[in-house]
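worker-03 picked up job from queue 'complexes'. Input manifest follows; two sequence lines, order preserved.
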Amino acid sequence: MAETRLGRWRRTRRYLPGAVLLAPALVVMTLMFFVPMITSLIYSFGDYSGIGPFTWVGLDNYTEILVDPRFQQAWANTAVFAVITMTVGPLLGLVTALMLNNRIPGRTFFRAVFFVPVTASLVVVSTLWKPLLNERGLLNDVLQLIGLERHDWLSDPSTALVAVSAASIWQGFGFETVVFLAALQTIPADLMESARMDGAGPWQRFLAVTLPSLRPTLLFVFVVGMIGAFQAFDQVYVMTGGGPVGSTTTVVFYLVERFRSLDLGHASAAAYLLVAVLVVISAIQFRIARTR
Amino acid sequence: MKSRHLRIAIGVAVALGSSALAGCAPSTDADADDTVVVWDYYGQSTPLTEAIARFEAANPDITVDHQGFDYDSMQEKFSVAVSSNTGPDLATVDMTWLPDLASKGLLADIGDISGGILNGKPIESQYSAGAYGAMRYDDHTIAALYDFDAYALFYRKDVLDAKGLTVPTTWDELLATSAAMAEDSDGDGKADKYALQLLPDSFHYVQLLLQNGGSVLDSSGGVAFDSDAGIGALEFMNELLTDGGGIYWGPSEGDSSGLPGVKDERIGMFLNGPYMMGVLKDGAAAQSGEWAVAPAPYSKQPGSYLGGTGLVIPTTAKHGSAAWKLAEFLLQPEQQLLVYTEAGAAPATEAALAMPELSATDPYFGEQAPFPVFQDAMATATAFPYVPAWPAIDTALTDAVTAVLIGQASPADALKTAATTAETALNG
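worker-03 finished. Artifact:
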C-alpha cells in the first residue's frame, strides 16, 4: 500500500529534530573542512598564488614536485623520522606500560610523570630541547663527564634528524604508555593464570598472551602514530628550520614552505600526495591486522 | 510534545548557526573610518611609535593603527593577509623580501601613488643610486627605503689592543688577526673565545663573493656565483673557520644576531649591519666602550649586500593616499633620525644621512663615530638580484655555505649543486 502524505509527514517530523540539530555542525564542517578540501584539490591542478588568475595546468604540479630533489629528500627524511619514532616510541611506551602495570611503589606518580610531556605543546618541548642539544648544552655536559666528545647535534646533518626524532619520542611516548597500560588492564587475569599454570614463563606469557591481546591497541598506536609522524612539522620548524642542508625537511615542512611563498598549486599537490600515501599506509596496516 | 522538541531544536540550530556565521563575517571597521593600518616588525625599539605619535599630532584627521609583528613570521603573514585582502595600508618589509612580494603582485607602485614625488622632490633625487635601484622592481618603485643595511666589521677593541693587534683591512690580515685574537679555552681545537662569528647564510657569503670580484648572477641573468671568484670566496670563508679563529654560528645557536655569544665573549668579531649597533647597546650594555666598528676587510674590492627596511603599500591597501602621506612623514629627516636614536639602525634618505647627529661620537663605541663606516659601506653595496627565483637561490646558497662549513662538501662541489638548483629555479 502506498504511503499516505500524512504518513510521510509523520516520518519526516520524527527525523526533523535530529536533522535540524545536525545542521549547524554540518554547515560548519562544510565551510571549514569540505570546501577547503575541495578548493585545495582544485588548486593542486592549477598555477595560483591567491592573487590574480588561476591557470589550469593539469598534473604538472604533481609531476614537477615529484622530480624536485628537495621534495624527494623531504620524503626520505619523513620516512626515516617515521621509522625511528614508530619503532622507538611504541617500544618505549610498551616497556614503560609493562613496568607500570606491576604493583610497584609510586606507580600512580610515575604514570602521571610519563604523561606530563604529552600535555605540553610540541613547540614548547622543542624549544626546551634545542638548548639541551646545543654544543654547550646539558647533553654534551653529560657526555663530556663520561669521557665522550661534545657534538652539535642539530648542526650536523647526520644527527639532526635523530635529535629531532628523540625530542618527538620523548614528548609522545607517554601517550602510548597510557594506551598500552589501559589495554594491559583489560587482559583477563585468569588467562594469565592459566598460562602460568601451564608452565609458561614471563617471556612466553608475553608472547602468547599479552602481545596477541594487544593487537588492536598496537594497530591503533601505529595508525595514529604513523599519521602523526608523516605530519611532523612543529619540532622541525622550531629546532632546525628544516636544515642543516635540508636534512630535517619533512613533507609537511616542504609544503608549508610552498604555502608560505604562496605557491598554492605545488603546496596543494604535495598535500594530496601526502594524503594518498597516508591512506595507503593505513589501509596496509588495517589489512595486516585483519589477516593475522 | 514532538512539536515542542522541534521548536527547541530549531531554536538551538538557529542560535548555533547564527553564532557560527557571525564568526565568519568580515569586520567592516577598517572601511568605516580613515584609520591607516601599519604593520611594523622592528620590535620594542621601533622608531615608528614616536614618529606616528608626531604624525597624528600633525594630522588630527588621520588615525593610525600601529600593529607590531614578529620579524620571523612577518613575510608569511603579510603575503597571506594581502592575498586575502586583509593586509595593512603600510608596512615595513625586509628589502630582501621585495622580489618575492613584488613578483606575486602584492606591492603597489609607489611612483603612481606619489606621482614620483617624496616630500616635494623627485624620489630618485633623495637616495643614493644603489639605494634607489634597490627600491625598483620591473621598472616600478615598489618600496621607499627606510633604513639601510650594509656590512662592516664589529670587533672587540679592548681585546685587539691588549693583544697588540691592528684592525685588518684585507682578507689576509683578517685571517691572521682573527686567528691571533681568538682563543681555545677548552683545548678542543676550536675557537671559543673572542672568535670571529661565521653565519652560514647567503648574506655573509655574498659579501665575500662581491669583495672577490664575483656576482650572484651575470648581466644576462644567468648563475654566476659558481665562478672562480665564488669558489675562492667560499674557500676563504671555510679557511676562516678552520685556520682563522672563526666560530660556526649555526641555527642551533638560536639567535642569529650572535648576542648570546657576544655576552659570554665567545664572539669577539663579526661582520654585520648597522642595526647591530642598537642590538649591542641594548643587549650587551656591560661591554660599553669595548666595541668598535671598521670597514669590512676585502680581497679585491669593497663590497657588501645592500638591504634594509622598506616602506611598502600593498596593492590591496584601503587608504593608499593616507598611507603614502604617513610614509612621506616617516621619511622626513627629523623622523628618520629616530631610526638611529630609537632602533640603533641606519636611516636611508640622503637628507637624513647628512644630519650631523649621525656623525657624532658614541661612548658605547669608545667615543668612535661608528655611523660613517656604514655610510661608506653603503656606497659600494649591491642589492641581491631582484628575480622571482631569489628565495630558491637564497636557500641553495645557504645550503652550500652550510655544507662547506660543516665539512660535508668542498666549496666547488657545494656551489655546483647550488648553481644547478638556482638554474632550475631561474628557468621557472
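worker-03 released lock.
The mean pLDDT of chain A is 89.
Residues 1-31 of chain A form one domain.
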